[in-house]
Amino acid sequence: MANDITLLWGSGSPPCWRIMIALEEKNLQGYNQKLLSFEKGEHKSKEVLDINPRGQLPAFKCGDKIINESCGACFFLECKYKSQGTKLIPDCDAEQALMFQRVFEVNTFGDKMANVIYYNWKVPEGERHDSAIKRNKEALSAEVKLWEGYLQKTSGGFLAGKNFSLADVIVFPAIAYLYRFGLSEQRYPKLTEYYKNLMNRPSIKATWPPTWKETPGQDILKDI
User: Fold this and answer.
1) Alpha-carbon torsion (151, 161, 170, 200), positive or negative
2) What are phi and psi of 48, to 5 degrees?
3) Would you state the torsion angle of the CA atoms of residues 170, 173, 174, 180, taken in this order, to the nearest 10 degrees?
4) What strands, in cross-sheet order, belong to the sheet with 59-62?
5) CB atoms within 10 A of CB 179
6) Is the Cβ–Cβ distance between 48 and 59 less than 8 Å?
7) Contacts of 17 (CB under 8 A, 6+ apart)
8) Is the distance from CB of 116 to CB of 137 less than 8 angstroms?
9) DSSP secondary-structure letter at 174?
10) Is 43 helix (H, G, I), strand (E, B) or coil?
11) Do residues 147 and 191 make contact, with C-beta atoms less than 8 angstroms apart?
12) Are 51 and 62 a contacting pair, CB within 8 Å?
């Protein structure tokens, strides 16, 4: 069943990682996969461009269907393989509504995180300003506090309640990225508890970024 699924991915990329978690949760191990290097520019190769003309990872195919947007790919997998593995869209209206809300907040979360982590990479040296760096850090701090608050108000241990759902599949890699780049565990106790509990989930352990196992993280976010 997984033989007609292909994923080209990069280690540590939250969009790639969330698809890999979804595949594990739906018992779709054994799919065709290839780890590519961002540093070597392999995401711009013809192999990737044939699937994803944006030259980005992930590049994902299920049969002849291409879904490169990672959230879309996760929803597609849940819909197509609804009857197998973990049920990732709750039946309960309240949990389902919360799941959709959290899923569609992830892009704002990711943008604010990237504005801090990749500021020097995205902005030419002559155009960098301390005031912009300060604003970006303040915006990310407010965002992280928002997610800390969400977890304080949600019982059950998961983002949408008592069941692991697509909200966790899609958002967990972004939260893990925060800690990879030095977010304080003490400053955000509920977020840290969530992160540490889920990092031992089989689907997450099985897909943990290999480069994260081999190299230390950074401390860019230590002051957030």
Assistant:
1) positive
2) -75, -45
3) 180
4) 32-36, 5-10, 59-62, 65-66
5) 18
6) yes
7) 9, 173, 176, 207, 209
8) yes
9) H
10) helix
11) yes
12) no
Encoded tokens for 140:
């990310």
62 burial (CB, 10 Å; 0-12 / 13-18 / 19+) is: buried
Residues 6+ away with beta carbon under 8 Å from 187: 224
pLDDT averaged over 10-residue windows placed end to end, the chain, 224 residues = 91 97 97 94 94 97 96 98 96 95 96 94 88 95 98 93 96 97 96 97 97 92 95
pTM of the model: 0.95
By C-alpha distance, which of 62, 71, 55 is closest to 7? 62
What's the rounded Cα separation, in Å, for the pair 224 and 115? 13
